[in-house]
Every structure is written in C-alpha cells, then in structure tokens.
Amino acid sequence: MEFKHIKELIKLIHETNLTEFKMEDGEFKLSVRTEKFAESKIAAAAQQHAQQAPQVLPVQTVTAPQMQQMQAMAPVMQTAPTPVVETSASKPDIEAATDDEDNYIYIKSPIVGTFYRSASPDKPPFAKVGDKVDEKSVVCIVEAMKLFNEIEAEVKGKIVKVLVEDASPVEYDQALFLVDPNA
C-alpha cells in the first residue's frame, strides 16, 4: 500500500471520528487508534495493550516528521520478520578515513527504513569503498513500508567509508556513506 493511501485513510478516520481502525491487505497490516480510544479503556488494559502495539499519535494533519514516525513503525506491523542473510558482502567496507573528515561529504538517508547495500543478497553492492559516484549514482536501497527506495548519491566524488551495516535500520538524516568530493 502506498503511503499516500495511508495518509488518505488517516484523514478519513479523523473526519469520521472513529476511535479505532484496522486494515489488512495481504501481509500488510495497519492499525490506527485515536486519543478517544485510549480514553475509553481502563488504565491497566491500556498499559497492557501499549506494551504489545506501537505508540499511535493523535489523528491530525500529517506533517513530514509524523510521516517518518509512521514509516518507522512499519517493521513493527509486519506479520513476520524479514530474514537477514549474512554474507561477507554484507559487512561494510570500513576503512580508516583520514583524520580530517571535515573535507568529506555525507550521503544521508532521506527516510526511515532498512538499509540494503545491494538489490538482493546474491548481487554485488551498489557502491563500495573506492567507487566513484556522481549525483545520479544509486548507492543503496532503503526499504520503508515494503517499498524499496533507491538512494542516489546526490554528490560527486569517491566513497571513502560505508557507515552502516547491511540490513540495519536507519533513521531520517542518518549518515550512510562518507564521500571525498575532491577525488
């Protein structure tokens, strides 16, 4: 399900004054509860449920930071964990960068999700230490809500360091790669 559809659903829930909404579409599950729902439960039941479900923000107009929080909750809503295949290619190429990292540029994650260095475990990484990249070079994939987003370098230079392990969760604006723009 695309994020714009989820946003439309949240808007409809707000307009109808529903207290709880659940939806399943294949493996995708969505559960939304408003403040009204929390107020209708006794404290003990709410506390027990809060330990089992992700925290839900009050229904309101969705802002960019709230979208990121919703994307961060997506792994919690999955029915089964995604298997991680550990290969020698999944370890980051962490090489010692020079002491002066101020001359380098970071490639950062534009979204919250899971970082993947290659399209699949049996494929080579998009970018590794020593590779030259330009603004349109795909350097990795960040999966968010079962959508695989290709991340472009948006800078020109040489990859100096990979900062994230393959199949690791990443936050919005987290540094993924270190690039030397002078190389």
Q: How many DSSP H or I helices?
A: 4
CATH architecture of the largest domain: Beta Barrel
Characterize the largest beta sheet: strand count, sense, and whether it forms a barrel.
4 strands, antiparallel
Estimated radius of gyration: 20 Å
Counting DSSP E segments of at least 2 residues, the number of strands comes to 10
Terminal-residue CA separation: 41 Å
Binned, the helix content reads: 10-25%
* Overall number of domains: 2
Q: Would you give the CATH topology of the largest domain?
A: OB fold (Dihydrolipoamide Acetyltransferase, E2P)
Output the structural class. alpha+beta
Mean pLDDT: 74
Secondary-structure element order, N to C:
HEEHHHEEEEEEEE
Based on Cα principal axes, name the global outline.
elongated
CATH structural class of the largest domain? Mainly Beta
Please explain how this structure is put together.
The protein is α+β, with helices and mostly antiparallel strands. The chain folds into two domains: 3-77, no CATH class; 88-180, OB fold (Dihydrolipoamide Acetyltransferase, E2P), CATH 2.40.50.100. Helices cover 24% and strands 27% of the residues. It has four helices and ten strands, in the order H-E-E-H-H-H-E-E-E-E-E-E-E-E. The longest helix has 14 residues, at 3-16. The chain is elongated, with a radius of gyration of 20 Å. Residues 41-47, 55-60 and 76-99 have low confidence and may be disordered.
